[in-house]
Amino acid sequence: MSAASNFFNAALQPMRPVPARIVVLLGMNDGDYPSAPRAAGFDLTAEHPRRGDRVRRDEERYAFLEALLAAREKLYISYTGRSVRDNSPLPPSPLVSELMEAVRRGFEDGQGGDPLARLVIEHPLQAFSPRYFDGSDARLYSYQEAYASASRALGRETPPRPFVSAPLTVAADPQAAEISLERLQRFLGNPARHFLRERLGINLAYQEEAVPDTEPFVLDGLASWRLAHTTFARRLAGIDATEALRLARAEGLLPHGAMGEVEYAALSEKLEPLVEAVRAHGSLRSEAVVVDLGDCKLVGTVSGLDGELRVEWRTGPLRAVHRLETWVRHLACNAALGPRPTRLYALDGKRLYAPVEDAVEQLRALVGLLRAGEMEPLPFFPRTSGAYAEKAYTGEGDPRYAARRQWEANEYGFGESQDAWFALAFRGRDPLNEAAFEQLAIDIYFPLLEAES
C-alpha cells in the first residue's frame, strides 16, 4: 500500500476486499483462475473429501465476487485473448465468461446491439499499431513517442518494388553456337536462379549448417540420399550387401552401432527392387549427342542406352525437377539417335516416356524459352507449374487451386514461393496471377504429360 498514491496490490483471495474507486483484475485467463485443484500426494483429504473441507475453487469464485462488489467507480478485467502460437481466440476465465453472459442478458445498449461491444476492448497485437494513435477508438491510446514514430513510419510503408521491372535490353550471347544439355536442365529446374546467377552474377549465400554436437541416431534427408546413392552404385557394380555395409560404415555414412545397421537394412529393403530392375537391362552405354537446332547446336551426353531403349534411375523419390531433367535428356536422345522410349525408375515408382517424333522442334522451343529467360525471370516453377499443368491436362479439379497449394507454404510443408531465388526474382509480384505462368506451364508440361505414363 502506497500512502502517496493510494495504490494497493495483492493476490485475489477471499476476505481481502478493500473498497476502492478502481479495481483492476489482471491475468484472468482460462485455466489460471479459478486455479485447477492440485492436491499433494500425501493429502488424504483429497481422496476422502468430507463436508466442510476447504474447496479452493469455491473460495476463488467468492473472492472474484468480492472484488466486483469492492469496485466503486470502475472495474477493469484483463486476460490473454489470443494464442501466442497462431493468434487464434482464447476464452477468458469461466468467471469472466459468466460475468459477460450476465451483462449480455441483463442489459442493453439502447440501440439493440450487443452491450459487450462497448465494454470489451481487444487490443492490437503490436504496441505501435496505428489504432493507438489515429483516434478511431477513444479507448485505445498511448503516450509512448517511440511507438508513435514507429506507427507513422508504418503508415508510410510502401510495397516492395519489383526486382525486375522490364526485360534486359542486351541478350546474353545471341551468337552462341553451342548450348549444353546441362545448361538447359538447370534453366528448367529453376529459371529464376538461372537468370540471377548467369545474367546478373548474383549468388545467394546459403547458411552452412553447423556440425551437430550430438551423435546422430537417424539420417537427415541429405545424408540419407548420399547413402542411397553410394550404396546403389556399389550394388549395381556387383558389390554384395555385406561389403557395401562395411564400406558405408567405414566412410561414416551411417549412425554408429545398431542404429546404423537398422538404417542400412531399411534402405537396402527399398533399394534392392531398384537394383534388380536396372540390372535386368544388362550393360548400359553412354553416347555423346549433337542436335542441330538451326541457329545453334545442343550438345551433351546421354547415358543408360540399352539397344532401342534408354534407362534412367533415381535413388530417391521422384520430384518435379527430376521429371524435367529426364524429359530434356529424352528429347535429346530422340532427336540425335532416333525415336525411342525412356524408362525412369525411382524409389516411389517408375515412369515410361514414349518416343517423340518432333523432338527437334520441342528442343528448339525449350531453347527459345532459355533465351527469353536470360532477358527476364520467367514465371515457371517445377512443382507449382507441374501441379497446374496436370490438373489442366486431365481436366480434373481446379488447376489454379492446385498451383496455389504448391506455391504457398502451410503448416504441413515448404511452399515453392519460399525458395530464395523465386522470392527475390518475383519480389513485389504474384507470378501465379500472370498470364505467362499458365502459358509456360502448358507449353512445357503438356508435351511431357502426353508422353509420360
Walkthrough of the structure:
With 453 residues, this protein is an alpha/beta fold. It has three domains: 20-155, P-loop containing nucleotide triphosphate hydrolases (Rossmann fold); 178-205 and 285-451, no CATH class; 221-279, Arc Repressor Mutant, subunit A (Orthogonal Bundle), CATH 1.10.10. It has helices at residues 56-70, 94-106, 116-119, 145-155, 181-189, 191-199, 221-236, 241-250, 258-279, 320-337, 359-373, 382-394, 399-407, 420-425, 435-451; strands at 20-25, 71-77, 178-180, 285-292, 297-306, 309-313, 342-346, 349-353. The strands form two sheets. Strands 3, 4, 5, 6, 7 and 8 form a six-stranded mixed β-sheet that branches. A two-stranded parallel sheet has the order 1-2. α10 (320-337) packs across α11 and α12 (382-394) crosses α15.
Secondary structure elements and pairings:
Layout lengths: L19 E6 L30 H15 E7 L16 H13 L9 H4 L25 H11 L22 E3 H9 L1 H9 L21 H16 L4 H10 L7 H22 L5 E8 L4 E10 L2 E5 L6 H18 L4 E5 L2 E5 L5 H15 L8 H13 L4 H9 L12 H6 L9 H17 L2
Parallel strand pairs: 1-2, 3-5, 6-7
Antiparallel strand pairs: 4-5, 5-6, 7-8
